[in-house]
Amino acid sequence: MLNILPQLIANGLIIGAVYALVAAGFSLLFSTNRHLHFGHGAAITAGAYALYFTLTERRMPISSAIIIALLAAVLVGWLCFVLVYYPLKKKHASAVVLLIAGIGLLIFFENLFVLLFGTDVKVVDYIAVTKGLTILGAVITKLQLFMIAVSLALLYGLFLFLYKNKYGITMRAIANNPELAVLIGIDKTKFYHLSFVIGSFLAGVAGILIALERNVEPIMGTGLMVEGFISAVIGGVASVPGGILGGFILGIVENLGIGFLPSGFKGAIAFTILFIFLIFKPMGLFGIRKGTRGD
Amino acid sequence: MNGFKPFPTHVLHISSVMILSINNVCKRFDGNEILSSCCLEIEQGKISVLIGPNGAGKTTLFDIITGFLKPDRGQIFLQEKDITNKPSYQIARLGIARTFQKVRLFTYLTMLDHLLMAQLEQDDFLYKNLIPRKDNPAHIEKANAMMGELRVGKDLYATLVTELSYGQRKLLSLAMAMIKPHRLLLLDEPVAGVNQTVRETIIEQIKKEAKRGDTVLLIEHDMHFISAIADKVFVLDGGSVIAEGSPEEIKQNKRVLKAYLGD
Amino acid sequence: MQAFLIQIVILLLIYLIVAVSLNLTLGQSGLLNLGHLGFFGIGAYVSAIASKTYGLSFFFAFLLAASFSALCGFALMSAIKKLSGDYLALATLGFNYVVYTILVNWMSFTGGPVGISGIPRPSFFGWKIATQPEYLFLSAVVSFLIFFFIAYLSKSRFGKVLNAVRDDELAAMALGKNTHKVKVQAMMLSAAFCGVAGSLFAHFITFIDPSLVSVTEVIFILSIVILGGIADNRGTLLATVIIVSLPEALRFLHLPNSAVGPLRQMIFSLILILILLYRPKGLFGKVELK
After folding, report:
1. CB within 8 A of A263, min separation 6: which ones?
2. Is C71 exposed, middle or buried (0-12, 13-18, 19+ CB in 10 A)?
3. What is the CATH number for A233?
4. DSSP secondary structure letter of residue B1
5. For the segment A69-126, what is each residue's pLDDT rounded down to a tens digit?
6. Which residues of B touch C185 (CB under 8 A)?
7. What is the pLDDT of residue C206?
8. What are the domain boundaries of chain B?
9. Residues A251, A20: Cα–Cα separation, whole Å
């Protein structure tokens, strides 16, 4: 049994990289906006389908396809804010109302994609399936290595933004102490917009990576978002680095789990971890649980 | 005295009994120490008042006594029982009734509903409360009497609380606490924001409580009110008790005047 | 046409039980249970397996469905005891997902993704309910009993405490009410009724599969409750009628079959979002979702 361990861990790191992207976006959105954006999955799916459409159906060059896919993801996420969350927040909606609205958005977009593309699984046949390299006992393809690299690069970029860039630092300040931010005269709304753009961008990347490495189907966004959310809970929902760490942890634990259990239980493993954390450690590993609106 | 059971180390006079004992209670919030080795003892049958500047921790102390918050350190004793870690509903059942700074009522129940619910003990058990039982006439009688004493018109009984004025809501929340079976009554700013008539009614009711042998501990800012009513005053500042005594003693206490200017 | 209408009414009554029982936790005790459909699935499967695999009579299968759902309600409440707000809502969603996963994966018992078919129609002491009008009668009796019980409950002493717990839990605790116990009892009732609805559904359609509890169906039930307004069952009645008839009305538009499903979901989610934006109290609701 032990000889498949490196492979399981490698698989865990690969998918963990994607979870980390989703979780980072999710946590960024939560800490800045103080509510859970359940529609986040829609941006993932939008990016994936846009890539499929441009690359496979319209045969556009890869660079344009990626740009369009990212734009699609950002647009979807941003519209969720502008059309739904922002008006609701102006009416002082509670976190639960925003949560339900988010679920509504998720379901709406998921079914929109079914309507547009059907329920069958689409394959983006851009990257030929090559033999993988063997590293430390695990087989990894170049694309998978690329996935991990891209994810780490973007997350590092996010770190630079949040800690070194003027706007990023302001965003963290708003997350930490919104009342003080208002007193200083910061226009929080601009940063809400920005958070949705950045978060959805990361989600779009996740969608593109999964589309390239696996396939595209309408429920992929929902599934990934749930895993991303669970990763965020593990690390502490309001903590971006926590979410990233949580993503990798979840990826590895899930893969170790299905190494020994039938693969249908993957979801159950994730949800069991969620329940364990929600009941025993709702703050996550790093989190200081920031109050949600109306708490 | 019947049922006299003094604490070994906490009896001040042979004839007085400490009903509530707060021992070295500490509480921290977000890095701020709100209560710091807070100690006080409340004598049975007396009206005690807790005063102090805003943020001194008075409401937090109430919340800890009644079980809505747990202290980081320290204990609370209700006569001989350690109630520090008990859930709030159990503490309520042990005989502590309270009001809140923000008036808390139930939006879609009538005044009468409130007063009846306050008197019931087992109504949180579905099985026992499904079969229609006529409301206990003794309870209704008591509710009527209470509303009479608080000078609330009988025609208001069937009104939903959403239609009441602020003064009426304040009186109702006081009535609920008083009609609930209790030995100790905790009132958080009972006369804040009410007009003169309502104030006098409330003062009268609190005095009646003490005459009946119940104990009252209240938080207030109004020095006239306090002088009129208090047997003992505790001054809380920076999370601990900096002075205690009769209202006259407190008014002359230099430390108090320094910490808490104003009347 | 008549058969079609009877079928709609039966489904309407069944979904009405689901909606009204959800109102019991949401509207009466303030708990947002997104996993409510889990009880529907549990009730349906327990009833189906009890009568098909073990040959129990409908009466016992039905009771078993109700009791087992109530037990699951109890378990759920214990698990979420320390949570509040949206963490609580999410944990309940997780419950839904767990039920779904078990139904899909425990193949030997539940038939897996294929589900269970050939569920026997109910029979009471020899009287077999074979026709639709007879089933309508059964559903009507059961649902009316449940509605009247719930309406009665809100006027009883317990019902008042339930309302108090929803309005201001702290004040209720200060009066000595064990609010957790109150919420557990409400949840168990709610789960039992929803399980009953599941049982009725299973024996009517005679075929069930795990898609009954898929998380997307949550939108369906949420839109009913929010459209109808929380705490007020008249609104729930109207909302259920609207939302159940909508997909049927879509049939008359002659859309391709594959479009009906997603379109239905999109319409529900839009309705949900629009209500939240413009009329958060719903059609008749007294209380705004907190």
Report:
1. none
2. middle
3. 1.10.3470
4. -
5. 999 999 999 999 999 999 988 888 777 788 888 888 988 998 899 888 888 888 887 7
6. 125-126
7. 86
8. 1-95+182-263, 107-177
9. 9
Contacts of A275 in chain C (CB under 8 A): 79, 91, 94
Which residue stretches of chain C are H helix? 2-23, 29, 36-52, 58-79, 85-105, 107-110, 132-155, 157-167, 169-174, 179-205, 217-228, 233-251, 257-278
CA dist A100 → A203, C240, C257 (Å)? 20, 18, 28
CA distance B154 to B146: 11
d(CA A293, CA A37): 13
Cβ neighbours of C174 in B, within 8 Å: 66, 88, 92, 97-98, 100, 104, 177
pLDDT higher than threshold 50 for residue B17? yes
> d(Cα A197, Cα B195) in Å, to the nearest integer?
53
Residues C13-19: what's their mean pLDDT? 89
Output the pLDDT for position B10.
47
User: At B53, which helix (H) or strand (E)?
Assistant: none
**pLDDT value at residue B13:** 47
Q: What secondary structure, in 3-state letters, does C207-230 show?
A: EECHHHHCCCHHHHHHHHHHHHCE
- Cβ-based interface (< 8 Å): residues of A facing C: 35-36, 84, 87-88, 91, 93-97, 99-101, 103-105, 107-108, 110-112, 114-115, 118-119, 222, 226, 229, 262, 264-265, 267-268, 271, 274-275, 278-279, 282, 292, 294-295
List CB contacts (< 8 A) between B120 and chain C.
157
User: In the beta sheet, which residues pair with residue B81?
Assistant: B78
Q: Does the beta-carbon distance from C105 to A103 stay under 8 Å? A: no
Contact assessment for residue C177 and residue C164, using Cβ atoms and an 8 Å cutoff = yes
Distance CA C53, CA C119 (A): 9
pLDDT reading at B146 higher than 50? yes
Q: Is residue A150 part of a domain?
A: yes
Query: How far apart are alpha carbons C60 and C66 in whole angstroms?
Result: 10
Q: Which two tokens stand for residue A139?
A: 């087989």
Q: Percentage of residues in chain A with pLDDT exceeding 90?
A: 33
C51 close to C119: Cβ distance less than 8 angstroms: yes
What is the distance between the alpha carbons of residues B120 and C161, in angstroms, rounded to a whole number?
A: 10
Instruction: Please give the CATH number for the structural domain made up of B1-95+182-263.
Output: 3.40.50.300
B47, B203 in Cβ contact below 8 A?
Answer: no
Distance (Å, whole) CA B78 – CA A95: 39
Instruction: Give the B-side interface with C, CB within 8 Å.
Output: 66, 68, 87-89, 92-93, 97-98, 100, 104-109, 113, 117-118, 120-121, 123-126, 129-130, 132-133, 176-177, 180
Give the whole-angstrom CA distance, residue C247 versus residue A290: 41
Residue C31 has pLDDT above 80, yes or no: no
C77-93 tens-digit pLDDT: 888 887 777 777 778 88
pLDDT-derived band at A206, boundaries 50, 70, 90: very high
Q: Report the distance separating Cα B113 and Cα B106, nearest Å.
A: 9
What distance in Å separates the CA atoms of residue A284 and residue A240, rounded to the nearest whole number? 12
Global ipTM: 0.85
Measure CB to CB from residue B66 to each of C172, C174, C177 and give the nearest one. Answer: C174
Query: What SS3 class is residue B106?
Result: coil
pLDDT at residue B16, as a whole number: 67
Tell me if A145 is assigned to some domain: yes
A288 in any annotated domain:
no
Report residue B5's pLDDT band, with 50, 70 and 90 as the boundaries.
very low
Residue A234 lies in a domain: yes
DSSP output for A199-231: HHHHHHHHHHHHHHHS-B-TTHHHHHHHHHHHH
Q: How many domains does chain A have?
A: 1
Residue B6 confidence (pLDDT) above 60: no
B126 close to C158: Cβ distance less than 8 angstroms: yes
Structural domain that includes position A174: 2-280
